[in-house]
Write a structure and sequence with these properties.
mainly beta; six-stranded antiparallel sheet; 3 helices
Amino acid sequence: RTIEFSGAFGHKTDKQIAQQGLKSTIEQKVEVFAKLGHSLNITSVAFTPDGRYAISADQVKTLRLWDVTTGREIRTFRGHTDLVHSVAVSPDGKYVLSGSEDKTLKLWDIDTGREIRTFEGHTKRVDSVAISPDGKYALSGSWDYTLKLWNMATGREIRTFKRTGGEYSGWVAAVAFSPDQRFVVSCGQDSDIVIWDMASGREIQKLKGKFGWNKSVAISPNGKYVSSAGGSVNLWDTATGKYLNNFKIGHRVNAVVFSPDGRYLLTGSQDAANGAIGLWNVETGTEIKTFKGHKGEVMSLAFSPKGEFFISASHDGSIRLWDVNTGREIIQLISFTDGEWIAMTPEGYFNASANGAKYLNVRVGNKVYSIDNFSERFFNPVYVASVLQGEKVATVADIRKGILTPPDVRITSPAPGSQFNTDTLTVTVAAKDTGGGIDEIRLYHNGKAIGEDTRAVKIVSRGSEAIREYTVSLVDGVNTF
């Protein structure tokens, strides 16, 4: 028989916490964070047309499908051989298009995760992809200085858009279709925003600026405005090319997107410390709201179909869902390098894959604990789903407002690696009070709590430590405690 030991944790009941209060820890900063090196940099994010699902792209060559009504990661799309920079969803919600460092575009079936076809032709990385409003065409922008228009049904390249003449040109960082599909727009390394005739591939006009290279471009839903983001955020009249406004942000901006009604601009920047996301009035150029929460630069933004929510993707490893009207963060979705995931509300309630929680830590003051110490109170998939579905649910606890420090708990014997030729085993557990008190000690055998009617327990007190001995019947194969 094999004996394994997993992490041990202690807890207190809600009643005891209410009686003792939070005075001992309320002044301490409490933060929940993913273990460094395990969470993924998120490069791009998009909603499906019905608003139920979100698609994200990350640094490990994958796309991930999230159910926004439950917070669950439900599918992974694998096939690219390098980092995925951009994703776009078809208007009918059946397909997702991705562009990658591996110089290709790929079309995927959302329902099955199956790769349908690969678009090949670019000679350098693909930074941006878009799907036409009628779903018939794909558009890509690359570091090979070109845009390419593709037939979605066949994967055939229709035409290449390329700057001509002696003018300076550079890599293409972002592309977009106009709502009527008469033109496409691009931006990139040079400071020009270029409008192209879709039918001929001819350059129609340049929206000149002195703003350095741009990373994002967007066209308003009515086609009236074009906005770009880079060293600053700028707005032009599409028909005349007249420069209208500069949204003064003060730091480099990675993403810009119009709201579905065209009245607002959402911007995502590198400066997480001062609010990486801003909501702006298009007509007045004034900032209406700042959304704070990300710990790293924001790379991509997408409004929900009706505009009441938006999602953001960041290099801090999280995707976050926000309420536009209140400015409140609703949930963050975190992917990990081994495929595990977490969905967590700002109060600390979370849902997770089978082993996802092992990557979450809680910092109380200067001390760090595994999330295991708080799982019994905060692991609550039903609460997470209720919040995402817009239900008003009473919050029993908020991990940000202070928590009682858990006991230090360890299995003292037998030692790891011990071997046994017996059918029973004595397991000794020690718990040391660190200020939050000790309610009880529970031992789990292969995931099942050892009940009062089946355990032989001997309790010994040694100062602030409580010692318990459990005599347990072993099973064939692996025994995990």
